[in-house]
C-alpha cells in the first residue's frame, strides 16, 4: 500500500508530566471526573487527556462497540484504567446509583446517539437517549452533592439551519430537521431548564452546580471508526481498496480536530469551577475559516496524505442533510480566551498519519497528538496551557491561531 513518506518519530516529543498537570490552571489534577460516553470516539480522547493531567476518571457508557479489522475501537485499543459503569443512560436507577457511587466533582456528558442518518432509522431511540438520558443524568447529579460542574456536549446542529454563510451564534434559534439535530436542541432546552430550576442555585445540597452546554462542529481525528462518517469511511477505503460512496460532495461543514473542542470543554470546566455563575450558559467551539470545508475538499486534502483513498459519487436519493453549516465562536474567544490551535492542513495531516501508523504497526499516536497539540497551543500563547495566563493573553492581545505542529 503506497503511503506518503513521513517520519513517525516526528510525533513522539513528549510534554513533561508537570506541564500536563498544570494545564487549565491545574484544575483537574487529583480531581474526580465522570465522563459519560467514555467508550466512544470523543469520550476516549477526553479520558486519555484527563488521565494525562492526573485526574481520577470514571466512565459511564454502553460497552464499547464490537471491533473487527476494519472497525476497531479507540477506547478498547487504549486500554486505559477507568473505573466504569457499563450501563444505558435510559436506566434511571442505574445511572443514579453509578453517579452516587463515583461521587465526581466534574461531569462531562458526551454519551449520545450521535449519528444523523441513524436518527432517521431510530428516531424514538435517538430522542430517548439524547433527551431522557440527559434528564436521568441530571437527576442523578441533583442527588449527588459532590458534583460542582457539568459540561453537556451537544452539537452545532442544534440550530435552526437556514443555509446561511453567517456563523450561528449562541443566541440563534434552536431546532433541527432530522431527529438527531432536534434531539440535541431539546437537550439544550433541558439543560437550560435544569440550570434555572434546580442547579443554578442551592436547592438543598449546600451549593449550586455550574451547568454549561458546548456546541462543537464536525470532529475528526484518529480512532473514529463510526458508520456514516467521512474520515472513517475514507480510512476503510484506503485499507480495503474499495471505493467509498459519497452522498453530498458540496456539503460544507466546520471541520476540526477532536482536541479542539475538548480543550474548549476543559477550559469551560475550569471557568465554571472558578465561578459557577459567570459561564453557565451555551458556548460554540468551532474551527477558524480554514476548517470551513466542503466534503469534496476534505476528501481531496486527506487523499494527499493517503493516496490509497478511493471514492465514487452516490446519486441515489437519501435522507435530508444540511448543505451549509458554520459556527461563530467570538464569544468563546472574547470571554474564555479559547481559539482553535491547528489549522485544517495540520488537522488532516495528523489525522491521516494517526490512521496510517495504527494500520502499519498497531501503534496509537493519541497521546503523542495530545503532546503535540499542547506544544502548538503554547507556541500560540493560548491561555489554558499555562498555569497562569501569560500577560499578553490576560491583556486581551490578538490571538495567533491555526499553527502547524
Overview of this protein structure:
The radius of gyration is 20 Å and the shape is globular. It has helices spanning 17-21, 41-52, 74-78, 92-102, 116-121, 123-142, 179-199, 230-240, 259-274, 295-305, 330-336, 344-361, 366-379, 391-394, and strands at 32-36, 56-61, 83-86, 106-109, 149-153, 210-216, 218-220, 244-246, 252-257, 282-285, 292-294, 311-313. By secondary structure, it is of the alpha/beta class. The strands form three sheets. Strands 3-2-1-4-5-6-10 form a seven-stranded parallel β-sheet, with helices on both faces. The chain has a three-stranded mixed β-sheet with strand order 7-9-11. Strands 8-12 form a two-stranded parallel ribbon. The longest helix is centred in the middle third of the chain and has 21 residues, at 179-199. It has 14 helices and twelve strands.
List low-pLDDT spans: 1-11, 390-405
CA gyration radius, whole angstroms: 20 Å
Determine the mean pLDDT. Answer: 90
Shape: globular
Q: Determine the fraction of residues in helical runs and give it as a percent range.
A: 25-40%
Distance between the termini: 26 Å
Main sheet strand line-up = 3-2-1-4-5-6-10
Sheet with the most strands, sense and barrel status: 7 strands, parallel
In DSSP terms (H or I, runs of 4 or more residues), the helix count works out at 14
